[in-house]
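Support reply, case 0932

Customer input (verbatim):
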Amino acid sequence: MNSDELASKLSQSGIPESSRNTIINCIVKHLLDSESEGTPRFATGDAASTVADADKDVQRALSNIEQLSPNHPLIQRVQRDTGIQDPQLATQYTERTLLAMKEHANQNPERMRSIFMSSRSKKERDLDGSFLHDGYDSF
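Our regenerated output:
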């Protein structure tokens, strides 16, 4: 499964095209934010002893997102970033996206690892003040 296949799977899920990339970005940001708050979720770079370990860490991070509900911080982020007013709909779309990302991580782990590494790298540069934009546009 390549990136086009992930996009195709999401298009079949009923999620509006305008929301798909934003929801993916929200999931990645959520995991990166959780990691920076001291809850290590995955190692996608130097901390991983092998590429295979990094791939497994990404898969594990996606699988470790706890049960989603309208009050979950990830769902609130999805609502805020996508403009979806209905919390139940935001929850459904996020769950579908998360499922597709898990499948993609199992079938194309190097691509998912690269997405996380790219996002982490951009976030670190943003924190350093090197970039003043959001920087999560790699999807």
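We compared this against your earlier run and they match. Two observations from our side: The helical segments are 3-12, 17-36, 51-63, 73-82, 87-107, 109-127. Residues 87-107 form the longest helix (21 residues). Please reopen the case if you see a mismatch on your end.
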